[in-house]
Amino acid sequence: MRAKKERPLRESRSLEFKERVTSTFLKTVSAFANYGTGEVLFGVDDSGKTVGIQDVQEACLSIENKINDSLSPVPDYSLAVNRRTNVITLTVREGLHKPYLYRARAYRRNDTATVEVDQLELRRLILEGQNLTFDAASSKAHELTFSRLESWMRDVLGVGGLTDDMLRTLELKDRSGAYTVAGELLADANSFPGVDMARFGDSISIFLDRETHDHCSVLEQYDAALALYRKYYQYDKVEGATRKTYELVPEDAFREALANAIVHALSAYADNRCYWKSQVMRSRRAGPQAAGLFHARRLRIT
Fold first, then answer.
1. Interior/surface letters 122-135, b for 16+ CB within 10 angstroms, e for the rest
2. Handedness of CA 55, 57, 63, 66 (dihedral sign)
3. 65: buried, middle or exposed (CB in 10 Å: 19+, 13-18, 0-12)?
4. H/E element, 79
5. Every domain of the chain and the residues it spans
6. Which helix (H) or strand (E) segment is 213 a member of?
7. CATH superfamily of 15-129
8. pLDDT digits (tens, 9 = 90+) for 140-164
């Protein structure tokens, strides 16, 4: 029987090839340690062809020295050698003590490329390394009210007023008694941008209706967006002795889109790209089509 010819590997988000040992792989070590375990194969060219490393022992020592001398902190890694092909596999594991810096910079994988993270993402990595999330970080606000949250908890959960202990339990205050970002987001007034909602006519230059809700509770933003949706994309129809409610756009899909939009708008590290849900948000029956456009600051209902 003929031996099957091995298909060449391809680089990916978690796999990189290096024909020889140079310092360029250290950026990828930073990326894997910051964002997810990955491997670097030394002795494989860019096309995935195995070329091998001439002096494997010396190359392994060089890889170790470069990582130990250049990465701060030093991530968890291991080396394995294929004696048949002379290919060295460097496995870098995602670490807990982020950010892992190479020459005072943090990196991430962008498909098969390794790129430097921006300042917002670097702040997020620092918080993650401190076992903090954006919503758990301390807020600069000192006096906050929660009337809308209290109303929601009373109507939905049957709970009365919010006590200081309850605020701590819900992590709206930290152990020191200071408000968290989560607390500020749910407060009646805050410093964060909100949502800008518009219903367009035949083109985006024609505004049929528009509402903006800034610096207010995310609960208020959510309720206001749902009210606008129900105003234009739900209608009642009497059929016989009953009245039925019809949706031009499924409300469940709109709720999901709206929640995503608010999260993107309020995350300090939200990127500046648009996220479309046209497949979910569009309805053949709708006159002016409905679609969710998620930007770092805006939600538009068109």
1. bbbbebbbeebebb
2. negative
3. exposed
4. strand 77-82
5. 15-129, 134-186, 195-301
6. strand 207-213
7. Schlafen, AAA domain (3.30.950.30)
8. 899 999 999 999 899 888 887 889 9
